[in-house]
Specification:
The chain has an eight-stranded mixed β-sheet, sandwiched between helices. Strands 1, 2, 3, 4, 5, 6 and 7 form a seven-stranded mixed β-sheet that branches. Strands 12-13-17 form a three-stranded mixed β-sheet. The chain contains 15 helices and 20 strands. It has helices at about 30-35, 40-45, 85-100, 115-130, 160-185, 190-200, 215-220, 225-230, 285-300, 345-360, 375-380, 390-405, 415-420, 435-445, 480-490; strands at about 1-5, 15-20, 25, 55-60, 70-75, 105-110, 150-155, 210, 235-245, 255-265, 305-315, 325-330, 335, 365-370, 385, 405-410, 425-430, 455, 465, 475. It folds into two domains: about 1-160, Leucine Aminopeptidase, subunit E, domain 1, CATH 3.40.220.10; about 170-490, Zn peptidases (Aminopeptidase, 3-Layer(aba) Sandwich). It has about 500 residues and is an alpha/beta fold. The protein binds ligand BES, manganese (II) ion and zinc ion (ZN).
Length: about 500
């Protein structure tokens, strides 16, 4: 998809998207187009009861005066100047109207709001994110059934400045699309080794990538992570990604840690058949970390950031871990595995401890599709945020809000921690039915020591059953943009 910024446009070619604010308010370029068409846009809005409500659309086909053109009106509601999310929704919603149209070119008239360059750049980002499609296995789709859109032009009064802003947003988009593709792949294609191979591509961007196999992890004493993978025919891996963007190479890095269970059958505590196919995306935390690293390196973020992902496949077999087994984690703490389906925390326990010991990070943030309980609590609207650090909580919450990846903080506390008491080991891996997401977070907390730490339980956010303005249904890459923004606002030297 080619994206270009310009001052003027030719409405006679391809499709033109016009942003309309509540009350049928047109931008100057929209009004000019309406004038060229003898008021056809205004008349269509009246006839079509189109008010400019956010995300509503109305299409005018082949209006007299233009050759075979298509005008798409997209409501942006009460978009305020500098409303980046409204701009993204505009670009994304316009693109969605194109996908089944056969149209190859789309022009976005982005002369809305006072901060036009920002609006234009984010409209382009929204377009790019919405145009993504995971269709590599659709071998019988006819060419004229596939979306044909391949060029997007964004017009505004300051195209040079818009382009500059877009250049770093485009790197973030690439990270998002990298993550989506990893998450969307089935588990026979993405397993620990192939995940690690895909991540190796980040070295072209200047990310140092290291892959640890089972032998090395055994030497390090990672009994918790290895226990989860021991029933699988696939070798478990731990991938370390390092981006050194700060002026001081010795500056303590921010660490991002991801749960990468490439398939979660539940193991011997096997899951019901219904919906088990969803567990191919139990590696979405790890994929978000990898995509964030790609975004940060792509836009050359001035920060030291390390990404660590624990990659395992949780399978039942003759070699699988049994309920009741006791494993020793790298930290030395022992864990009674009551339920082999509570495996993500076992993987993260060793990944967190390893990261803390090796990198002495300034803070650690883990992302994981950790519990079904978080979906019961927050549905598909917010990720769950757990941390004892108020300042970090505020930064993460603000970053999520700014990019449309919202998180909601839930409590931690001594009383929850007690629920992990085991008779035979230092802890058990489940806390019982109640407060399942919190006891899972308490479990992780036992492996972070004094390092400032936050945990994001994103089980409800990484896969969407319906289209959204900038996210087609399926893999969302939730977390990539949040992490990128968090680094930009809180960890980069300005
Ligand atoms: N990967 C699942 C969590 C999950 C469930 C994510 C549904 C997305 C949708 C996790 O490994 C798991 O199985 N958790 C158990 C924990 C329980 C055994 C304490 C759960 O949530 O049921
Ligand atoms: Mn599980
Ligand atoms: Zn899982």
């Amino acid at each position: 998809m080619k994206v270009a910024f310009a001052k003027t446009h030719d409405a006679a070619v391809g499709a033109t998207a016009v942003a309309v604010r509540t009350g049928r308010l047109l931008t100057p370029a929209g009004a000019a187009l309406d004038a060229v068409l003898g008021g056809a846009v205004t008349r269509a809005m009246e006839v079509g009861r189109f008010e400019g409500k956010r995300d509503s659309t109305l299409t005018l086909l082949a209006p007299a005066g233009l050759d075979k053109a298509r005008i798409v009106l997209v409501g942006v509601g009460d978009a305020k100047p500098g409303d980046a999310l409204a701009a993204e929704a505009f670009g994304g919603t316009a693109v969605a109207q194109m996908l089944s149209s056969g149209e190859r070119r789309l022009t976005l008239l982005a002369d809305l709001s006072e901060d036009e360059a920002l609006f234009a750049a984010h409209a382009a980002l929204g377009a790019r994110l919405r145009a993504w499609r995971f269709d590599k296995y659709l071998t019988r789709e006819k060419k004229d059934e596939k979306p044909a859109l391949d060029r997007i032009q964004v017009t505004c009064t300051h195209p040079v400045s818009a382009k500059t802003t877009y250049q770093s947003l485009e790197k973030v988009a690439e990270g998002v699309l990298f993550t989506r593709a990893l998450v969307a792949e089935p588990a026979n294609v993405i397993h620990p080794e192939s995940f690690a191979e895909r991540v190796a591509a980040l070295s072209a961007l200047g990310v140092e990538v290291e892959v640890l196999g089972e032998k090395q992890m055994k030497k390090l004493g990672m009994g918790a992570l290895l226990g989860v993978g021991q029933g699988s025919a696939r070798e478990s891996k731990l991938v370390v990604m390092r981006w050194q963007g700060a002026t001081d190479p010795e500056a303590a890095p921010l660490a991002l840690i991801g749960k990468g269970v490439t398939f979660d059958s539940g193991g011997i505590s096997i899951k019901p058949a219904q919906g088990m196919e969803d567990m191919k995306w139990d590696m979405a935390g790890a994929a978000a970390v990898a995509g964030a690293m790609m975004a940060l390196a792509g836009r050359k973020a001035r920060a030291n950031v390390v990404g660590v992902v624990g990659l395992v496949e949780n399978m039942p077999s003759g070699t699988a871990q049994r309920p009741g087994d006791v494993v020793t984690s790298m930290s030395g703490q022992t864990i009674e595995v009551i339920n082999t389906d509570a495996e993500g925390r076992l993987v993260l326990a060793d990944a967190l401890h390893y990261t803390k010991e090796r990198f002495k990070p300034s803070a650690m943030i883990d992302l994981a599709t950790l519990t079904g309980a978080i979906i019961v609590t927050l549905g598909n609207e917010y990720g769950g945020l757990f941390t004892g650090d108020d300042a970090l909580a505020d930064k993460i919450t603000a970053a999520g809000k700014a990019v449309g990846e919202p998180v909601w903080r839930l409590p931690l506390g001594e009383a929850y921690d007690k629920m992990l008491k085991s008779d035979i080991a230092d802890m058990k891996n489940v806390g019982g039915r109640e407060a399942g997401s919190i006891t899972a977070a308490q479990f992780l907390k036992r492996f972070v020591g004094d390092t400032p730490w936050a945990h994001l339980d994103i089980a409800g956010m990484v896969w969407s059953k319906k289209d959204a303005p900038v996210t087609p249904k399926g893999a969302t890459a939730f977390g990539v943009r949040l992490l990128d923004r968090l680094v930009a606002d809180g960890f980069e030297a300005s």
